[in-house]
């Protein structure tokens, strides 16, 4: 413990600040609990793996990349460690500076708590949840560069900045970026193929918002579970027992159903399997990771609407 670095009474002031922040956020917390929507809007997160652990730091520096680029970036970690040791070998005292220790602890402890907590309590290890550690990471990188001579330090900064700009450009233009959901293209298909005799079914229900942003078709839109986004209250929970009635209510007397599944909340397979076992599938197309459109034939008593692909 390096108590001499902190003025007397620092711990008390820290506690007072913590209490003040908690009081400020209390009204917001009570309001969220009062709405009762938090439980049904939790994302379905998987237990992290070692790949997720190492990818987090890579994403903070190079952004979200596809699997091929991400594999190359992660394979360079031995080189990164080698340069770090070479930079610090003649200036070992820099690593023991209180500021460096603080930033290192902030980064490592935060990531470790989220990773271990995902196994003990519930999966919470997502890079965006750890975004607050980015300043510590960048300051650590800057500290590492300061260990070089001024000429090499400047060259290293320019090199890292150039790589970050290039990877950012790749992330923006690449259609294979894993965080991009191609709702625009999926909805463009709906705009040109659906008719008033059809129905568009979306799941998870909250994906109605990006679809409505692009959708200009004549077929009505509904969700599974059925949810009226304009009414007060949370998204209804999914129930396998009520799924048949929910589907019957959602599709009504439509001729074709356009089922767009994304953001799997744990029941996507149930919905797809039900449609596959009760209706004839006419068409399938995946527009991006976890964003797939299925078209099913519901009625054969009319030929007014034909599905063209």
Specify the overall morphology: globular
The residue ranges in which pLDDT falls below 50 over 5 or more consecutive positions are: none
DSSP summary: helix tally: 12
Q: What's the rounded overall pLDDT mean?
A: 82
Oligomeric state of the chains in view:
single chain
Number of strands: 5
Query: C-alpha Rg, in Å?
Result: 26 Å
Q: Cα distance, first to last residue?
A: 69 Å
Supply the helix-strand structural class: alpha/beta
Range of strand content: 5-15%
What is the H/E string?
HHHHHHHHHEHEHEHEE
Residue share in helices?
40-55%
Question: How would you characterize the largest beta sheet?
Answer: 5 strands, mixed
Strand order of the largest sheet: 2-1-3-5-4
Describe the overall structure.
With 309 residues, this protein is an alpha/beta fold. The chain contains 12 helices and 5 strands. A 5-stranded mixed sheet has the order 2-1-3-5-4, sandwiched between helices. Helix 6 (98-120) runs antiparallel to helix 7 (134-146). The longest helix is centred in the N-terminal third of the chain and has 26 residues, at 10-35. The mean pLDDT is 82.
């Amino acid at each position: 413990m390096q108590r001499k670095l902190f003025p007397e009474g620092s711990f008390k002031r820290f506690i007072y600040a913590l209490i003040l922040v908690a009081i400020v956020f209390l009204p917001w917390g009570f309001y969220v609990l009062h709405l009762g929507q938090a439980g049904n809007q939790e994302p379905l997160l998987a237990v992290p793996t070692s790949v997720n652990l190492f990818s987090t730091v890579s994403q903070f520096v190079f952004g979200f990349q596809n699997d091929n680029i991400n594999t190359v970036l992660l394979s360079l970690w031995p080189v990164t460690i080698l340069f770090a040791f070479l930079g610090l070998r003649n200036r070992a005292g820099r690593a023991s500076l209180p500021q460096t220790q603080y930033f290192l602890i902030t980064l490592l402890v935060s990531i470790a708590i989220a990773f271990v907590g995902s196994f003990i309590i519930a999966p919470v290890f997502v890079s965006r949840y750890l975004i607050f550690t980015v300043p510590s990471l960048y300051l650590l990188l800057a500290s590492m560069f300061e260990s070089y001579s001024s000429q090499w330090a400047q060259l290293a900064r320019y090199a890292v900045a150039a790589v970050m700009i290039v990877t950012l450009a790749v992330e923006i233009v690449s259609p294979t970026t894993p965080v991009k959901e191609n709702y625009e293209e999926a909805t463009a298909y709906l705009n040109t193929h659906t008719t008033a005799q059809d129905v568009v079914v979306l799941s998870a229900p909250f994906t109605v918002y990006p679809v409505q942003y692009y959708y200009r078709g004549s077929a009505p839109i509904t969700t599974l579970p059925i949810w009226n986004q304009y009414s007060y209250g949370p998204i209804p929970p999914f129930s396998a027992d009520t799924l048949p009635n929910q589907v019957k209510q959602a599709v009504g007397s439509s001729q074709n159903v356009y089922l767009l599944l994304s953001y799997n909340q744990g029941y996507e397979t149930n919905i797809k399997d039900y449609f596959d076992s009760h209706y004839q599938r006419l068409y399938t197309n995946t527009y991006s990771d976890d964003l797939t459109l299925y078209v099913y034939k519901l009625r054969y008593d009319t030929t007014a609407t034909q599905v063209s692909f």
